[in-house]
């Protein structure tokens, strides 16, 4: 197909990507899964200190590959939590359930209160999971790729569990939503 004068152009209708507010609104048109990323690390006193839970919420999460089993998330370069998570031998990724928006906000809040009132579970090697999640993935760091003001993190799934009956939480248009089953008609 060749372009000719009969082919309509849309350049005049497009906004420059340099307009951050417009860019954020455009990004919000795409729904994404919301996850908790967490691990258990040695306490401030080293090997003698009580283990500490480290975690955060992430909304730029997606599946990447079946072979090897990979998922990705994007982390702001200014994050003070990611450097602590990335050093762990195992990282837990919990897919929030649709009724866990308050818990997601909590894990996105101040680091000293992220696990208040939560009884997480975990693996022997340090992956931590939130209770009642739609899916839990025990991962190892596969790769990190600089990506502007974020880092694209690839995690290799080592083990997992899921509950297909639990609806996931979705982030869309700057708010939390749940999925709706649509009728396929008669």
Plain-language structure description:
By secondary structure, this protein is mainly beta. The protein has a single domain, classed as Electron Transport, Fmn-binding Protein, Chain A (Pnp Oxidase, Chain A, Roll). 11% of the residues lie in helices and 40% in strands. The chain has helices spanning 20-27, 82-86, 101-108, and strands spanning 32-41, 52-65, 70-76, 91-95, 121-122, 128-129, 135-147, 150-162, 169-172, 175-178. The strands form 2 sheets. The protein has a 6-stranded antiparallel beta barrel with strand order 1-2-3-8-7-4. The model has no long low-confidence stretch (mean pLDDT 87). This is Flavin reductase family protein. InterPro entries: Flavin_Rdtase-like_dom, NADH-dep_flavin_reductase, Split_barrel_FMN-bd. Residues 27-178 form the Flavin reductase like domain.
């Amino acid at each position: 197909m060749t372009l000719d004068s009969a082919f309509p152009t849309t350049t005049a209708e497009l906004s420059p990507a340099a307009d951050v507010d417009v860019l954020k609104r455009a990004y919000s048109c795409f729904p994404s899964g919301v996850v908790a990323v967490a691990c258990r690390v040695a306490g401030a006193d080293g090997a003698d200190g009580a283990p500490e839970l480290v975690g955060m919420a992430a909304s730029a999460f997606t599946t990447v590959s079946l072979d090897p089993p990979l998922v990705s998330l994007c982390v702001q370069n200014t994050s003070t939590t990611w450097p602590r998570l990335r050093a762990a031998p195992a990282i837990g990724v919990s897919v929030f359930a649709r009724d866990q928006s308050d818990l997601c906000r909590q894990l996105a809040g101040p680091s000293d209160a992220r696990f208040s009132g939560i009884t997480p579970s975990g693996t022997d090697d340090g992956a931590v999971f939130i209770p009642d999640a739609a899916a839990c993935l025990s991962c190892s760091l596969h790769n990190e790729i600089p990506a502007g003001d974020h880092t694209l993190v690839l995690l290799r799934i080592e083990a997992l569990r899921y509950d297909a009956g639990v609806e996931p939480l979705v982030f869309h248009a700057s708010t939390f939503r749940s999925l709706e089953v649509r009728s396929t008609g008669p």
